[in-house]
Automatic annotation (TrEMBL):
This is DNA-binding CsgD family transcriptional regulator. The keyword Ribonucleoprotein does not apply. Keywords: DNA-binding. GO terms for molecular function: DNA binding.
Length: 362
């Protein structure tokens, strides 16, 4: 059967991206079927609760409460509908059965619906979907044929929707992890223009002056010499996709590093061709803030905390002493107290204890 200028099919597939979901599809189906009410209901395998989208006048809050309390968890025929088969109201409501007669009298009659056609499909992951048309007057048998034609398309649309929802959920979890670790990424074209970014990247731009969006959406480093190096690296990667990644330090306080690598995964949807991906990682706090946290966390003195943080950044005892204006002997004396208070048995363990402590998630 042809579906009314294919409007229903277009609306069904476009409904995945619509808010509210599938509203246009339900409105068109209600109009073309001359129904008074059209509803699409979902039930996932791990949640018996029905989620419904609809077009038309609902049954009313009181009737909904009656249905939920009395019939939603009962062995009603609509739970056992065979896939792809269209059922009429007469097939779904047997008035000789006390439970079904009560459903008719307490839900359908107050609502005013006398005619119904419904079909059920099951998405591959186990989600059940019911699509139903209700009428206050007898619905044409053509409505049954229309639902039968829609069933395989409804299953495909649901499969696409569930795949998108799964990817959205994974993306949100990844974004949350990146946010906590102050980690972001962005892709660049050969002219160093930003094409796409991770959600948290905009926060990193806001918090740090070391890196920013410039004119024409170009990635710009605060230091001119470093900006030239990054631009040259991106142009080199655009010419040689097999080149090795290149790392740059953007800032020491707070610490921020970037790694620029060739982009080997090609995007099908992009106005400009990305050639490089830039991984950005940094500390959200200044050295002074981190030292205060070390004082609170491990009971270090401020002078000990400053030395501990310097060592955690990879400096040797002598390098840290020079940076902090200490003698090597004083730095070694401090380091013994630091090892004792943090439970570290050497520099490597001290670095691990500090960088994997709660400071990493602060």
């Amino acid at each position: 059967m042809r579906l009314q200028d294919d409007r229903l099919l277009r609306a069904l597939y476009d409904g995945i991206f619509e808010q509210p979901l599938w509203q246009s599809f339900l409105d068109i189906l209600r109009d073309t079927s001359q129904s008074d009410f059209v509803v699409m209901s979902f039930r996932s395998p791990d949640d018996p609760t029905l989620t419904s989208l609809y077009s038309g006048e609902q049954a009313g809050e009181e009737v909904d409460i009656i249905f939920t309390r009395r019939f939603a968890d009962k062995p009603m025929p609509f739970w056992e509908m065979r896939e792809d088969r269209v059922y009429s109201m007469a097939e779904l409501v047997d008035r000789a059965d006390p439970l079904q007669r009560a459903y008719h009298d307490e839900v359908l009659t107050p609502w005013g619906m006398t005619s119904q056609y419904s079909v059920r499909v099951a998405e591959k992951g186990g989600t059940d979907v019911w699509l139903s048309c209700f009428g206050r007057r007898p619905l044409s048998v053509s409505v049954s044929a229309r639902l039968s034609t829609l069933a395989p398309h409804l299953r495909t649309a649901m499969r696409m929707f569930m795949a998108l929802e799964q990817e959205r959920f994974r993306s949100e979890l990844s974004a949350e992890a990146f946010r906590k670790l102050n980690f972001g990424w962005l892709t660049l074209d050969a002219e160093c223009r930003i094409i796409d970014t991770s959600p948290h990247m905009e926060r990193i731009f806001e918090r740090s002056r070391a890196l920013r969006r410039g004119r024409y959406n170009r990635l710009v480093a605060q230091r001119p010499a470093l900006d030239r190096e990054i631009t040259a690296a991106v142009k080199m990667l655009a010419l040689d996709a097999a080149a090795r990644p290149i790392a740059f330090n953007l800032s020491r306080d707070p610490l921020m590093d970037v790694l620029i690598a060739p982009l080997r995964t090609k995007a099908l949807v992009s106005q400009s061709r990305p050639v490089a991906i830039v991984y950005v990682n940094g500390d959200r706090e200044s050295q002074a803030d981190r030292c205060e946290q070390l004082v609170e966390l491990f009971g270090l003195l401020p002078s000990e905390a400053r030395l501990a943080w310097a060592i955690a950044q990879g400096l040797t005892i002598s390098e840290a002493a020079e940076q902090l204006g200490l003698t090597v002997e004083t730095a070694r004396s401090y380091s013994k107290k630091i090892y004792s208070k943090t439970g570290a048995r050497g520099q490597a363990e001290l670095v691990r204890n500090i960088l994997t402590s709660v400071l990493a998630m602060a």
